[in-house]
Specification:
3 domains, about 500 residues, alpha+beta, two-stranded antiparallel ribbon, TATA-Binding Protein
Length: about 500
Amino acid sequence: MPSQKQEFSFPGQTTDQLLLTAYGTFLELGWTPKYAGPNAIIGYTPRSWNKYDDEILVEAKDGTMTVTSSLVHNESFDMMGKNKKHINDFITAFENVKTREPQAAWTEEIEKLRNQTVETAAEQVKQAEEVNKAMSLTGSNLYITYAIIAINVIVFILMAINGAGILDVNSLVHIRWGSNYSPVTFSGDWWRLITSTFIHFGIIHLVMNTYALYMVGVYLEPMLGKTKYTVAYLCTGIIAGIISLWWHKQGTNSAGASGAIFGMYGVFLALLFTNLIPKQVRISLLQSIGVFVVYNLIYGMKSGVDNAAHIGGLLSGIIIGFVFYPLLKKQDRGSKSNLALIGIAAATILSAWLYLNSPGNKVGSEERQRALNEVQEMNFADAEAYLDKMKAFGELETEALAPFNEKPPLNNAELSKRLNTISSEKWDRALGLLEKAKTYNVSEKQKKQAELFIEYVTARKEEIKAIEQLINNENPENNEKLNEINRKIEAVLQRLKELN
């Protein structure tokens, strides 16, 4: 809290005289006197749409006066020199007011402020006791929060040693360590719904989630207690994983504690909508938690962020929070509490089992093996470089085949021109990529795939020549040659399909 203090000497002035003049100075400046004690008075500068109100403390002792200006709204620095200006303004006005006779009402007003200050202090002590009671219902410490953070950090370090990457992520390692990878989660690896909540894609992902968990855990773990807190964290994490699978129909490889963390924020939001927490802190907490949730959901709309998991965790957390509310209000640690926890865990497990085993979602052994083979292929040193080449090849293939897909179809002259300029150049570049890919340190399957694609591109280049010959001389011999090349292309494509 940036502040500045300055002491002034006023020989012959008593404490009461200095405080009376200080009170009049506040009024002179349009500042609001708010608190008073035997030797001090506190006032606030005006607040407007573009600036906060700042606090001015005046402490008096016979012959001396200390003026302290403070920025009390979480500012880190007094970049504009506001504190110095406030003190200068105060002393200038003080000197003017001192030359005038103090008004009789000022003494009465200061006494009222003193009485109000005593009442306010007593009320704040009472409110603080109520808040402490509500926010620490179970008297629990933060051991579970610290344990979850520790597990996340340890797993991240071990995965980094295993090659997962600190900034540049290797998703293969994440799959091996238990990320929520659709083909294998749907084919029996149900445990990935749990393990994925302790895995992170890079150091930034880990740090952001760790910070968010700590910020909510400080409030929530003492309120819920270890058992409720743990059950809520795991269950909302599982539901978040299920929602992520449901949303990403095309498949996903997701991980991170954010689904479970959003779940804990959902639990907190639900409790903040009840009267469990005193109103004086409930509103401010609702505002700060609400801003956090809304901001992160909006940020989650960008690509690469699993917002489905965030929403799933948040909604399931809100439901769990409302289930917990009557138990916390009565501080019930008996059979009702145990039944509620068993019910939440059972509902979560049943939901996960039904979804993973529903006819439309269950993945067969062949698809599972194919997915595992793809993961295994990524173990080779040049696997990612190979996939990059294959992606570039696919783009070149699309461009090379474009003349055949024009609407309306091109006439023979235009088709011949496009094939001999654009398509030929694209196939030549594609062939160069494939020749390079064939030399990579990759699996035997991928090497065979590269060889078949080379056959395919070679046949496509022959196709262009055959089409040119047919356009220039349409006879049965040229027509049969083109048909033969097309059959070769179909055969290679079939072998590629079988290889996959």
